[in-house]
Structures are given as structure tokens and as C-alpha cells.
Amino acid sequence: MNPEVNIQDTEEWWPVVASADRFAGRVITVRTDTVEMPGAVTADRDYVVHPGSVGVLALDGEDRVLLLRQYRHPCRRLLWELPAGIRDVPGEPLVSCAARELAEEASYRARTWHTLVDLYTSPGMSNERIRVFLARDLEPIPDEENGFVRQHEETDMPVEWIPLGAAVDRALNGMIHNSPAVAGILAAYAASADGFKGLRPADAPEA
User: Fold this and answer.
1) pLDDT level of residue 81 (50, 70, 90 thresholds)
2) Which residues contact 164 (CB under 8 A, 6 or more apart)?
3) Residues 122-150: pLDDT tens digits?
4) Active-site residue flag, 154
5) DSSP secondary structure letters along the chain
6) pLDDT of residue 156
7) Which of 104, 145, 153, 154 is flagged as catalytic?
8) CB of 178 within 8 A of CB of 184?
9) Between the CA of residue 72 and those of 81, 177, 205, what are the distances in Å?
10) Digit-coded pLDDT (tens) for 51-69
């Protein structure tokens, strides 16, 4: 590795000379920006504007990962995923959003939280970014304390626990496709080498 090259993503802003929204839905907007490119030329770039998401890699005392199965219509598949959700409460700390999703989708709470990995889901076509948290020291939430009502795709969403190593094998063998699930599983496996001591705190800023 060249020591003079800083291998770190950095913020950059190329001039936008025109912008038009093509579609606005409940969650996303499809936008076309006309961007100034090197060489004094412009090019149109279509992309999805997204509020962002969070995901939770919940790990129990036996080093098992909590996975949910959910129907994803664009893919026409049932995918095994982490508890996750949209950042839909303005000003809400990301770890609070993650805790809410873990409670609503899996009926668990966690006492120990760390930032596991940050990622853009598909940076060539969307600005959606996801922060995946590591949640440990779990305890189930009694049914009478969880008033969340599941609907639509979440109505039939089974929960399974799988050993972390087995989850890694399934990710590498093309059996798990959901991007934050794959990233979270591999990141948790890597971070477990030092007992998760190298992870950032749950309130670490997003760069």
C-alpha cells in the first residue's frame, strides 16, 4: 500500500447545474441531476433519494446471530435479513432507531450497543446509507410490553438464531443476499477477533 494515499472515503461535491424530481413516493424520490464533469462537460445522473436506514446485528451469549425472513417484492424473494428500518423520526439518535427496530421486529432489547459498520447500499443509484449496530446482552420483551402491530410483509416474518460462523458460510456461499446482513455478519466475525474491543461507540458520528 502506498503510504502517501489516504484510503478513506471523503466528502466531495461536483457542481449540479440542473436538478429535476421525476417521482416522489412515500419514502423515496427519484431525481435527475445534471452534473459538471471533468473536461468542462455535463452528464445526467439519475438516483434515488432515501432518508437512510439502520440495521442491527444482534448476537446472543452463544455467538448466534438473529435473522429475520422477509418478502422483498423488487427481488421476488424471501430474504434472510437483520432487524432494520428507515430513519423516519427526525432528530432521533441512530442507536435509538435501531433499538426500536430490534424491539418491533424481533421483540428483543439489548444492554450493550456498538457501531459495527457503515455502508451505502448502492452508491451508483441511491444515496441511502445504513449504519449497522452490534447489539449484545439481549433479553426478550414480553408480549404485553410490545404493542407493535405487524402488517404487510412483516405479518409473516419468522425469527431464527444461527451461529455467527455458519452465517458467514451462508453469506460467502450465496445463500444470504441482503447487503446490510452480509456486511454486518462479516463485520461482526472480523470484529470478534479481539472481542469487539476495536468497535466504535454506538453514538460515533457518521463520516
Assistant:
1) very high
2) 59, 63, 64, 65, 185, 188, 189, 192
3) 999 999 999 999 999 999 998 777 765 66
4) yes
5) --TTS--S-------EEEEEEEEE-SS-EEEEEEEEETTTEEEEEEEEE---EEEEEEB-TTSEEEEEEEEETTTTEEEEE-SEEE--STT--HHHHHHHHHHHHH-EEEEEEEEEEEEES-TTTB--EEEEEEEEEEEEPPGGG------GGGSS--EEEEEHHHHHHHHHTTS---HHHHHHHHHHHHHGGGTTTTPEETTPPP-
6) 72
7) 154
8) no
9) 10, 11, 30
10) 999 999 999 999 999 999 9
Residue with cell 459498520: 117
Number of residues written out for the chain: 207
